[in-house]
Design goal:
The complex is a heterodimer of chains A (167) and B (187). Chain A contains 7 helices and 6 strands, in the order αβαβαβαβαβαβα. Chain A is α/β, with parallel strands linked by helices. Chain A is globular and about 40 Å long. The mean pLDDT of chain A is 96. Chain B is globular. The mean pLDDT of chain B is 97. Chain B has 187 residues and is an alpha/beta fold. Classes of the chains: A alpha/beta (167), B alpha/beta (187). Chains A and B meet through strand 2, helix 3 and helix 4 of A and helix 3, helix 5 and helix 8 of B.
């Protein structure tokens, strides 16, 4: 049994078939990314920008993998076109494990600016969105991953600072 | 030779490979020349052809050719370090470098000026990089396929497009047809 929340989340992803992960780093997700990188059950391909990462995921999905992208909420600003014209247009399932920066506990003021737009953009894009705020919220991860495959949509899992501090 | 001539010249070489084709004129021209269930056409999302190709190559063993363009590579320049550092020997990135953004009216790209994409690819760490003239593309592609090594080919050709219709196939059908073909080969 994995000892901390980052490891439990990755183990849960693997248990639900995720076998290809691309990531653009965030401090809050450093533990998750490190554990993914050291796990031989998952192919990990770090990408330089999140839209590039979604391209990798689209290709991997068509090759039979079950991909996931790990990124910061600032990436929603980067990937609107890719989400609409690649992931949604071709109906590729894509869970997005997102660090939700700019919420309570945030030390960097600039992060608040994209936090203000995050849920509105996801809503505008009709992306099913789930918010992990407290310890225990992660119990829904497996169902979210199943829902993503079933609906063949991108889904957003927002994980905020309070969640990472307390889970 | 313009892009359409290059595509015609490589069709006899592409026998059993999976093809990811760049948005706009490249996909429309390939679709008009020789539609195959092993072709995936991009209908949008400028820049991601090489990324989709790499992801596909890493996910399964069949050979993959990404037919990309100079403008698209410039749009997603971060792709070259990712390709260099995640070697998939079943992957060929063919950059048809006509020095212009063909689908949007042939506006010049920097690749047609001072920027060398083959030099960029090498600097990013890609190990097998070939730059060739349009007429030699088919030969270089043949060699790259035979080498069983990940290869980046930069084919220098003239700017220009032929008049072909837009692709009206539904995106979900494009993806489903392609995935069925990929799946058939794994079974």
């Amino acid at each position: 049994m994995a000892s901390n929340i980052s490891e439990r989340i990755v183990d849960d992803m693997i248990a639900h078939g995720i076998d290809f992960v691309t990531s653009v780093p965030c401090k809050q997700l450093a533990g998750v990314i490190e554990y993914v990188g050291n796990n031989d059950k998952v192919m990990h391909v770090p990408s330089n920008k999140e839209d590039e990462g979604m391209g990798l995921c689209a290709g991997a999905y068509m090759g039979g993998k079950r991909p996931c992208i790990i990124m910061q909420n600032t990436a929603i600003g980067v990937t609107v076109n890719t989400l609409a014209t690649l992931i949604q247009y071709y109906q590729f399932p894509l869970p997005m494990l997102i660090s939700y920066r700019g919420e309570l506990g945030e030390p960097v003021a600039c992060q608040v600016e994209m936090a203000l737009h995050t849920k509105a953009l996801l809503d505008q894009l009709h992306i099913p969105t789930f918010h992990f705020h407290k310890k225990g919220d992660e119990a829904e991860l497996g169902d979210i991953l199943k829902y993503t495959q079933m609906s063949k949509k991108p889904t957003a899992i927002l994980t905020d600072a309070f969640f990472w501090r307390t889970a | 030779m313009i892009r359409n001539d290059v595509l015609k010249s490589i069709l006899p070489i592409i026998t059993n490979e999976l093809v990811i084709c760049n948005i706009g004129s490249p996909s429309q021209e390939l679709f008009s020349l020789d539609d195959q269930t092993s072709n995936f056409y991009m209908l949008g999302t400028m820049g991601l052809c090489s990324s989709i190709g790499l992801g596909l190559a890493m996910a399964q063993p069949e050979k993959v050719i990404a037919i990309d363009g100079d403008g698209s590579i410039l749009t997603n320049m971060g792709t070259l370090p990712t390709i260099a550092n995640n070697v998939a020997d079943n992957f060929i990135l063919l950059i048809i470098d006509n020095g212009s953004y063909g689908s949007t009216g042939d506006q010049p790209t920097y690749a047609g000026k001072k920027t060398s994409l083959s030099a960029v690819a090498r600097a990013c760490g890609c190990e097998n990089v070939v730059e060739c003239q349009a007429k030699d593309t088919a030969d270089e592609l043949k060699k790259a396929l035979a080498s069983n090594q990940m290869t980046v080919i930069v084919c220098k050709c003239l700017s220009g497009n032929v008049k072909v219709p837009v692709i009206e196939m539904n995106p979900v059908i494009i993806a489903d047809r392609f995935m069925t073909e990929v799946g058939r080969r794994q079974s």
